[in-house]
Amino acid sequence: MTQRTLVLFKPDAVRRGLVGNILSRYESKGLTIVALEQRTIDAAVADEHYYEHVERDFYPPLRDFVTSGPLVAAVLEGDEAVEIVRALNGATDGRKAAPGSIRGDLSISNRENLVHGSDSPESAAREIKLWFPEL
Hints:
By secondary structure, the chain is an alpha+beta fold. The protein has a single domain, classed as Nucleoside diphosphate kinase-like domain (Alpha-Beta Plaits), CATH 3.30.70.141. It has 7 helices and 4 strands. A 4-stranded antiparallel sheet has the order 2-3-1-4, sandwiched between helices.
């Protein structure tokens, strides 16, 4: 089933020059780029994107991190795109992510873990509308 999903290349991925490397992993798997844009976000956008976490203890440092510098937002499309992106990303904690995954190969942090991928088709639709309302 063809789906669209949102991927955020977080500020650590941009800062470390890993966007091209990571994007090529998605493309090599067969996903197509529908939209791609570098931008910075403020706390209000971060709060809207991560609305389900705003009241959690870990959220303030996450908000500080995602607003700390430029990030790249992308919409990717392909067969089971949500599931494929999440598998390629690996476990949230880069220290525990499997080798071969993006986080397993390139991250050693739970917060600075390079990428965000929508966790369901419903989340993807909401997130894409937030980041790319024209789609």
